[in-house]
Amino acid sequence: MAAESPSDDRPALDACGQLLAQRLTAAGAAVERVPAGTTTAHVLARWPGGGAPVLLVGHFDTVWPVGQLARMPLEERDGRLFGPGILDMKAGLAIGVTAAQAVAATVPLADRPRVTMLATSDEEVGSQTSRAHIERLAREHAAVLVLEPALPGGGIKTSRKGVGEFEILAEGISSHAGADPGAGASAVHELARQIVRIEALGDPARGLTVNVGVIEGGTRSNVVAERAHALIDVRVSRIEDAAAIEAALLGLQPVDPRVRLTVRGRISRPPMERTPGIARLYALAREVAAGFGRTLEEGVSGGGSDGNFTAAIGAATLDGIGAVGDGPHALHEHVIVDELVPRAALVAGVMVRV
User: Fold this and answer.
1) 3-state class of 133 per DSSP?
2) Is the peptide bond before 351 cis (omega within 30 degrees of 0)?
3) Among 2, 133, 198, 273, which is most exposed with the fewest C-beta within 10 angstroms?
4) Is the domain of 153 the same as that of 22?
5) Which domain holds residue 180?
6) Which residues make Cβ contacts (< 8 Å) with residue 247, sequence separation at least 6?
7) pTM of the predicted model, to two decimals?
8) What's the pLDDT tens digit per position in 192-244?
9) In this structure, is the dihedral angle defined by the CA atoms of residues 20, 21, 22 and 26, taken in order, positive or negative?
10) Residue 50's CB: how many other CB atoms inside 10 A?
11) CATH value at residue 285
């Protein structure tokens, strides 16, 4: 937990990945490093078995910079363990390793599942180098368990919104705002008109939201702005809406024909929809939890994860089966200590039942 590993710090990521590989080897897995281009190699671990293959997915990169431990020391208070990245999602990795090791130690080889665990180094920055590996492995396994944090209260995620980011650039004609305003074509005014159009594309009742979160443009108040741009966050609950909103944004046309519009972006994570396969896997997980006196709820998350990729290709996926706690990406990030063993038991039980 104390191995800091921000997504953009290669030496720190390398050290954390190496430590994770050592822990996995000690847990009885055959471990390999999967090259990831200019970033740290992903960690792939396999435990042998004769039953249905199960894939565990997680990541060891975090949003916190090196040195954050000095501000957020790893410490236990009132049954909660605090620290940067502990909930999202190093405790989840520990849960996965513990569950796989327990199954290997207690279930005969012919009866236990063949378990694969992929821990990636770039989830927090879009999974660009890991997505193909995640999707390939998901196709080879009967079920996918994503070790992301649970919903508040411990529920697992059976659906997630898809995520996209777009940039819109307006390029107009500058002029003096007082002496010759008609000679100009304001990029700022054009962008304002487009924002009204963009807002109208949202449909919260369908789980489709569009947020213009950053606007920049112009140079001075007495200059008709030549350039302006905005960044747009898009969330979608349905796959068909993903294609539609992407087409609508990329197809925006200027109101003022003297202004040129350029729109870039895409839906980078498709929505995770609650399919019949996901429903069956959730029912199995509920039975496992009930076996040790727990009620396992389900819910939807507005954020994306690598579970979006596995569900979108049709793999039965349960997300948020990792640690229970609060404050991911926040200064109070923590896990509830007494929930760690039950979550490992849940993961192990689901793997065996699959």
Assistant:
1) helix
2) no
3) 2
4) yes
5) 162-269
6) none
7) 0.92
8) 999 999 999 999 999 999 999 999 999 999 999 999 999 999 999 999 999 99
9) positive
10) 12
11) 3.40.630.10
